[in-house]
């Protein structure tokens, strides 16, 4: 007869052993898993802590860089404001220099703009009878001997670094134009000869400098100088050109235009 009790006992014993072994394995596995979880959690916390430290350091560095950038911007703005202020002062100084000369020789400009060359001497010789143009007010000093030299234009030379080369040469030629007209007027008085400014090549060359866009190329006078009566008109255009260039100097357009033009010349030279 089959021994069922032995079979049941064997099954129970095997079950107990299996459960025991499984429990032991599970316990060890859980313990090992808990250890790994702890290690993982510790590493995760360490990584988070390190990342937090690095983020705080990065924030601090960004803050320092931002402060430095702000200081640089403020310094640049202050420097730019100082330079701009110095440019304005230089332009004002030289413009007043030009304007004073312009006013002092206005009777000569009126003479050359109202009368024809063959009428100059007749008008000049009668200024003691009728000086409607105010020619008696013209200073007859000989300071024009140094017409186109640094001593005469010292104030202009002092402001040259702040004017820029384009503005400097335009002002320089504008002043020389006025001084040249005075010189030729005084020469008429001395030599009793007629002067036609339209035929004065030195004067015309200085006009071309004023209407040039840079310090290299030759400018073009906006209209034909076919009549000596156009003097006031061309002087007016000279002053318009000066004020337009002054605006360009202050806005930075003059430097930008010169840089572009020279870049194009360089490109065309190699192409």
Descriptive report:
This protein is an all-alpha fold. The chain has a domain at 86-270. It is built from eight helices and no strands. Helix 4 (154-163) runs antiparallel to helix 5 and helix 5 (165-191) packs antiparallel against helix 6 (201-210). The protein is rod-shaped and about 155 Å long.
The arrangement of helices and strands along the chain is HHHHHHHH
Query: What amount of the residues lies in strands?
Result: under 5%
Q: What composes the largest sheet? A: none
Mean pLDDT: 77
Poorly predicted regions: none
Write down how many β-strands occur, each being a DSSP E stretch of 2 or more residues: 0
How many helices does DSSP assign?
8
Main structural class: mainly alpha
The proportion of residues forming helix, as a percent range, comes to over 70%
* Cα-based radius of gyration, to the nearest Å: 45 Å
What distance lies between the first and last C-alpha atoms, to the nearest angstrom?
117 Å
Shape: rod-shaped
Task: Give a short overview.
This protein has 8 helices and no strands.
Characteristic key phrases:
rod-shaped, 8 helices, 271 residues, 0% strand, mainly alpha
Layout of helices and strands:
Layout: H1 4-104, H2 106-114, H3 117-125, H4 154-163, H5 165-191, H6 201-210, H7 231-251, H8 253-270
Helix pairs in contact: 1-4, 1-5, 4-5, 5-6, 5-7
